[in-house]
Amino acid sequence: MSLSLRTISREQHLAYIQSLPSASHCQVPAWADVKNEWRSENLGWFDDGTGQLVGVGLVLYRQLPKVKRYLAYLPEGPVINWYAPNLDEWLQPMLKHLKQQGAFTVKMGPPVIIRRWDAGAVKAGIADPNVLRLRDVEATYVEPRAFEVADRLRRMGWQQGEDGGAGFGDVQPRYVYQVPLENRSLDDILKGFNQLWRRNIKKAEKAGVQVIQGGYDDLPVWQHLYEITATRDHFRPRPLSYFQRMWTTLNGEDPNRMRLYLAMHEGEAVAAATMLTVGQHVWYSYGASANHKREVRPSNAMQWRMLRDAYAMGASVYDLRGISDSLDDKDHLFGLIQFKVGTGGQAAEYLGEWDFPLNKLLHKALDIYMSRR
C-alpha cells in the first residue's frame, strides 16, 4: 500500500476514530481543546490506491521559549497500523511534515501492548521480597509483534523515552492496569475481585454509600475532594478550570465522552472520579476521596458502579490507567498497584514513549531542561 500524509479536518479525524472499536482518548480531536496551551494539528494517512483515510494522528505542538521551534507530541498515538511491515513508510512522511512545521523533536506513544501480567502473577511478585519491579516478574502473556515494532523504531532512529511513571502530568503511563470485560458475565468479574474488594463493596452497601452520576455543576465538589487528595498524596493538582474545560470540550464532541461519579454518604460526597469513553474502551481517569469516612469504603463502591456502567455500555475493557512498575512497598506509588490488583484484572506494559530528535542540539537542551524541572 502506497501512502500519503496531509492535514485533515477535525470532522474527518473524528469520523475515522468513530469507525474503530477503540482509540486513546488522547487522540480524539477534542483533546486538543483540553490541552489548550499547545497548538494542534490533525494528520491523516491516505491509501493512494483507493484515496481512503487509513490512519490519523493528533499532534500537539509546544513552542520553545523565544524561538519558533516546537516539540511535536502525539500522546498515545498516532492511530495507525503499528504492525505494518512497512512501518517506516507510515512514519517517515510524518517526520518530514513535522520538520516542515518547525518541530525540533517528535515524541509519540505507540498504543502497542508488549506484555501482560494477570493478577496472580502480580500478587506473587508483591509477595516475593526479592522482586522489586513488575518487569522482573515473568509475564503471563507476551506480544512478539511488539518487539518487532520496537526493533523497527530503533532502526529508524527513534529513541525510547523515559518511563512516564504512573501518568501524572503530561507524560502518558507506560504501565497500566486493566479489567477485561469481553465474554465475561458481571458475576464472573465480581468473582475475579479479591476477598478484600468484595468485602469492601458489601461494607459500603451496608453503610448506605450511594454512587451517583454528577454533572458539570458538581465539578466544584469534585475539585474540593481532588485538592484534599493532592495534599494527602503530595502531587500538584490541576485547577478546576481544567476539568471544566475537559467536560465542555469532550462532551461537546461526544455527549458520553466524560462522566463524573460521586460516592455519597449521609448526604456528603466522600469520593469522586471521572470516567472517559472512546468506543469500547473505558478509562477511570482521575480519582479523589476525603480524609474521613474511609471506613465506609466509598472508593470501592464507586469503582464497582463505574465498572458495571462500562459493562452496560458494551465496553471490552475497563482501564484503571497508570501504575508504577515498582512492587516495593516502601515506594510512594506502591499503593496504586496494590489497590488496582484487587480487581483481578491485568497489569499491561505499553511500548512506552519514543523520541525522534530532528535537531539534536535543541533536543539535548530540552532533555537538560526537563531533568531540572
TrEMBL record:
<dbReference type="GO" id="GO:0016755">
    <property type="term" value="F:aminoacyltransferase activity"/>
</dbReference>
<keyword id="KW-0573">Peptidoglycan synthesis</keyword>
<dbReference type="InterPro" id="IPR003447">
    <property type="entry name" value="FEMABX"/>
</dbReference>
<keyword id="KW-0808">Transferase</keyword>
<keyword id="KW-0961">Cell wall biogenesis/degradation</keyword>
<dbReference type="Pfam" id="PF02388">
    <property type="entry name" value="FemAB"/>
</dbReference>
<dbReference type="GO" id="GO:0008360">
    <property type="term" value="P:regulation of cell shape"/>
</dbReference>
<comment type="similarity">
    <text>Belongs to the FemABX family.</text>
</comment>
<keyword id="KW-0012">Acyltransferase</keyword>
<dbReference type="GO" id="GO:0009252">
    <property type="term" value="P:peptidoglycan biosynthetic process"/>
</dbReference>
<protein>
    <recommendedName>
        <fullName>Peptidoglycan bridge formation protein FemAB</fullName>
    </recommendedName>
</protein>
<dbReference type="GO" id="GO:0071555">
    <property type="term" value="P:cell wall organization"/>
</dbReference>
<dbReference type="InterPro" id="IPR050644">
    <property type="entry name" value="PG_Glycine_Bridge_Synth"/>
</dbReference>
<keyword id="KW-0133">Cell shape</keyword>
<dbReference type="InterPro" id="IPR016181">
    <property type="entry name" value="Acyl_CoA_acyltransferase"/>
</dbReference>
